[in-house]
Amino acid sequence: MKIGFDAKRLFYNNSGLGNYSRAIIGSLIRFFPENEYFLYVADMPTIDNAHPESLSFLDFSCVTIRLSTPAKPPTSIFLFLKAVAKFQPWWRTWGMGLMAGKDGVDVFHGLSNEMPLDLPPGVRSICTIHDVIFKELPGYYPFIDRIIYDWKTQKALKNSGMILLTSVQTKLALDKYYPNFLGKKSVVYQPIHPDFYAVQHTTSPKKSAFLSVEAGSNLKSGSTNYFVYQSSFTERKNHLALVEAFSLIQKQIDWNLILVGIDGPMRLQIEQQIAALHLEKRIRIMVDAHHSLLLTIVMGASGFVYPSMSEGFGIPLAEAAVAGLPMAVSRIPIFIEIAEDTPVYFHPNNIEEMAAAMMQISLPEEQVRQRQKVGAILDKIDSKTIANNLMQAYLNPS
User: Fold this and answer.
1) d(Cα 317, Cα 335) in Å, to the nearest integer?
2) pLDDT tens digit string along 154-186?
3) Range of the domain at 84
4) N or C end: fewer C-beta atoms under 10 angstroms in the chain?
């Protein structure tokens, strides 16, 4: 089978959508190497401009990189969108689909909420929609971005034989905000990076992890224990509430707090809050950490906290589960779906409740309880199961 993918995010995105693309295609290559995988991208990825991990896809014999040729925009709507937002290059919307048809692709999978509009009728079409948070929490998105996301979602629904959702909660949200779509939908969870499975827990990485984090910082060095929160520095991720919650327990626990993730508009405000609360020696911000360091930090943590207001899935939670970390997370539907009764939950707007949950996961008895429960999460994110589910979707997309 020939399967085509919009590979822009795979090669050039460092966060959620890029991680999803790399993990999905990596799993397919691992378990179904007999297929041919066509990755469509604007220019040949190199070590200077692409995500470092994405370059490994260039080495597989079953993978073909196809450079999409920009096409002339067919209507004035494209000119308008280009004028008001980052809606370029054109090839992802008009050009890539026609190229996939010429390549004889059997199935085309749009990995990030959009599909090319020129995909020939003979090519089976599937699109993953990760979330519609721009509908659920519009205040977190600029007006123009909401218009574009909505337009892309509507076009994806119209032009796809099947829609894949990364959670039941996203499926429910899609049904709520786009009730006119009556096409086929299927929930397929997300795998995580295989490196999280490769680390040997018996080596007890906490000391080396803390030394990596400690280098160049002034974190309190009396303890090697720390909470970790892995997330982009945006408002929806709720860092300010977490910092305030940590301030309430700082004298009760010697664990530190590490905030690691993609840089974003909230970072400066978070740094100012940390300074105002005199927590510079207890909280460390790490921006754009490379994969090996991120892996070391997460695997070496003592506990994981996830105060996000809303998510389409929550890959960091899955990674924390594989790392064997006790978890304190927001009581939001998606986390309850994925983690069931494993974590300690708190309301993301309740600072005292969040602080109490963090204290609870530092207790040995709570850590034992969560280790006994975590198998439910691991079953959901099994890479082979996910790859099998994807292949079933490709064989029966409509």
Assistant:
1) 8
2) 999 999 999 999 999 999 999 999 999 888 999
3) 2-191+382-395
4) C
